[in-house]
Amino acid sequence: METNLLGMVSGIIDAHLHQWDPLATPREASSVARVYRLAPKVMERLAPYLIDKGSLDFMITPRHVLQPYLSSHFKKDSDETIAAVGVPVDGFVHVEAGWHSSDPTQETQWLESLVLDQVNTPKMFAIVGHADPCAANFAQVLDAHKKASNRFKGIRYLTSWHKDKKVKRWAPHEGVMTSPKFLNGFEALANRNLTFDAYVYSAQLKEVFTLAKTYPETTIVLDHYASPVGSLGPMGSDTGKTKAEREIIFDKWRDDLALLAECANVISKQSIFPAMLGIKQQGIGRAALAELVAPMVEHAAQVFGRKRMMFGGNYPVDKPIVPYGTAVGVLADILAQYGEGMLSSVFRETAINVYGLDVKNTQIADALR
Q1: Whose CA is closest to 96, among 173, 185, 20?
Q2: Is residue 226 part of a domain?
Q3: What is the pLDDT at residue 47?
Q4: CA triplet 330, 336, 341: central angle to 5 degrees?
Q5: What's the mean per-residue pLDDT of the chain?
Q6: Which of 277, 269, 283, 369 shows the shortest CA–CA distance to 325?
Q7: C-alpha–C-alpha distance, residues 126 and 362, integer Å
Q8: Residues of the chain with pLDDT under 50
Q9: How far apart are CA 223 and CA 103, in angstroms?
């Protein structure tokens, strides 16, 4: 049965959206994006030969990564929620997205310049920027982000690393979060009462546990369930290649997630990220996807509870696999069994509380600009 959120949620807040324009701003993919614009069909055919397996498994198709994705594009996708669950998307939290320059605060400045264009589209309520806790100027970068925007609420520093060399690695080396340099630098973030979005794979959950225990007063947001890579299909060279191996991956993830959930300062962001689980069926239907990911979503719900879970669409990264309305509908259908309180928390209230969103005032301020 498909769940309708009408009467439970006044409007959805997406706590994990990426905006980018590789043609007009410095991105890791900017040079390739310019070529793609000239010959998209050719680039699609050549992608398996030009892009490493880890990156291609991550993106499925280069189409969405190499083209602009702004609030106007998001509106077209998020409009699907009205038919899917009965309510619109009010706004979103932007999460850093591959800005490629020596000054990551430029992304925050660029995001603020977009606000005037956000007319009749979901509003950007908050910004999670990029900064490296290992960097000598980490504290200064945080202050510059805050100066650039009052929407700045915290950072994400990509720390995902997998032993399989053909699974996409974002971290420079294994064990970044438990290194003395990272842990010592992290204090600047803790002192400023900012949040930290942790993007890791399931084998790294104990690293997040160490960080959470070291800084128990700092809110740590666990992105994408700490993807148990390959738990629903083969990934990389040999990850999850057999059913038995997939069961081992899931069981280990389940136990480590339960341990991490004991840390009251950790929040679970419900962004499914199907490609990294091993799901490759583009445009998968609502019921089919719900059946596949239900064990993962239900376990997270049971160990974190409704006040420590929030929805993140991870668009446009997830777009090749799952339509936006389907992603929202899948979570709503699975979580409906836990009651209206769970649904209102996941799709709105937790994001407001975690990121300190002043939703009403933000909307008024934008209207007056």
Answers
A1: 20
A2: yes
A3: 84
A4: 125
A5: 93
A6: 283
A7: 10
A8: 362-369
A9: 24
